[in-house]
Amino acid sequence: MTPTWLTQLLFRFGCLLSVLALTSDGNGLSLASDPSGTVNFLDMVNNLQGDSGRGYYIEMSIGTPGQKLNILVDTGSSNFAVAAAPHPFITHYFNTALSSTYQSNGRTVAVRYTQGNWEGQLGIDHVSIPKGPNGTVTINIAAILSSNGFFLPGINWQGILGMAYPMLARPDSSVEPFFNSVVQQLGIPDIFSLQMCGAGLSASSAADPAGGSLVMGGVEPTLYRGSVWYTPIIEEWYYQVEVLKLEVGDQNLNLDCREYNMDKAIVDSGTTLLRLPVNVFNAVVEAITHSSLIQDFSSGFWDGTKLACWMKGETPWRFFPKLSIYLRATNTSQSFRITILPQLYIQPITDVDGTLDCFRFGVSSSANGLVIGATVMEGFYVVFDRAQQRLGFALSTCAASGGVALSEIAGPFSAADVAADCSAGSLKEPLMWLISYALMAVCGLILIILLLLLVLPCRRRDRFGEITDESSLVRHRIK
Ligand SMILES: *[C@@H]1O[C@H](CO)[C@@H](O)[C@H](O)[C@H]1NC(C)=O
Ligand SMILES: *[C@@H]1O[C@H](CO)[C@@H](O)[C@H](O)[C@H]1NC(C)=O
């Protein structure tokens, strides 16, 4: 078989598949595969299940022979880890002893999340994704042997897929994250995109789990409407972005823009809610209380300890304003805004009582930065364009309810009214290290100077025979 012959065959085969994909698609217009033919995005549509409350997961086949496991997609961490021992809240786990290709490397690893943590053993194995890019990749796997508050009741996943950058990988950045390995070994473009479809559905109904799509290697046009708006990834660890402004209804919160990025602003599919720095959160709650037609909300609703209930069928959304987040555009003197309707942040919870519909507040306060979590992401098709160091937002085709879009995007707006760098106040990890080193250097310098100051007079005094030992010297100097 000559290579040309093989290429031709593959090309014909590829065309046939594209034609099939085109005809099976209702509106007949889709750009299913990229020119290299290694990625077929339509194959990846609807490869996720889950909801904002318990996360969105993808099915993977791990080891040889493949063991099927559901893996949570988390853009806020960078380790690939799967349960490798039984746990009361999971139905099955990855049995490393049954995989002929599993190799432990003997290192232990521990990871701590905002909620929960686990400990395990590092190793490598082969993994494929039935509804993902074609091919098998050899990747780092952490085999979870013990955990706390990580696997929760009612979840249907057994592992986590950290999609962020190497800097967040544990125990250190030499443990290559899953997506880096996929890009390198399969040669797909360094970009993935995420559509999560739980908008407006009950966050806890096990009956009909919502779907979603994780497209690896590009952007699937059938998953969004309008254009994709891009914001720079300002630091490659989490997917850190720069928030310029927040609006509740038409009202600008008018805080110093650094407050929104204190100590960072990230996009994280593994976080359920929209989390806001305390000051911002308080301002948002106050603005919502003022603009909503309901004044007598108990504080328990805002802090997430109480649900608010209405008579069945009397949806409360018309009482609440829209929320808008302004992000820096790639042209840094401009911004664009992503807006969520109350349907996304006043979230239905399966009825507690037969005659009532109950809702929770989808926004919470945070001590470690602003997090654009699933509550907001469900309104958008989010493009993680790592190749060009930018994140894209577009209107998601599944963020609609009864024909009404639950999210909006608008722009460009001038960013002349905000500081040139709203994340200036944020301490990024490398920066923090730099500052520590700088402080250490300064301390060292002061110490040397002090010692010199101590030693010099000491010699002089020595000459005069006054003070002989170091300790008395120190006492003298303190006086
Ligand atoms: C991946 O492989 C399957 C099965 O051979 C095929 O149907 C699909 O079109 C392939 N996708 C691409 C992009 O080559
Ligand atoms: C960036 O935005 C500014 C302000 O709107 C505009 O004047 C400028 O032409 C834009 N630059 C580019 C490269 O589009």
TrEMBL record:
Belongs to the peptidase A1 family. Its main location: membrane. Disulfide bonds join C197-C398, C257-C422, C309-C358. It is a single-pass type I membrane protein. It comes from Amphiprion ocellaris. Residues 56-394 form the Peptidase A1 domain. GO terms for biological process: amyloid-beta metabolic process; membrane protein ectodomain proteolysis. It holds the Pfam family Asp. Keywords: Aspartyl protease, Disulfide bond, Glycoprotein, Hydrolase, Membrane, Protease, Signal, Transmembrane, Transmembrane helix, Zymogen. The keyword Cell cycle does not apply. The chain crosses the membrane at residues 431-456. Residues 1-21 form the signal peptide. This is Peptidase A1 domain-containing protein. PANTHER family: ASPARTYL PROTEASE-RELATED (PTHR47965), BETA-SECRETASE 2 (PTHR47965:SF40). GO terms for cellular component: endosome; plasma membrane; trans-Golgi network. The active site is at D74, D268. The keyword Disulfide bond applies. GO terms for molecular function: aspartic-type endopeptidase activity. InterPro entries: Aspartic_peptidase_A1 (IPR001461), Aspartic_peptidase_AS (IPR001969), BACE (IPR009119), BACE2 (IPR009121), Memapsin-like (IPR033874), PEPTIDASE_A1 (IPR033121), Peptidase_aspartic_dom_sf (IPR021109). Glycans are attached at N134, N331. SUPFAM superfamilies: Acid proteases. It is found in: Membrane.
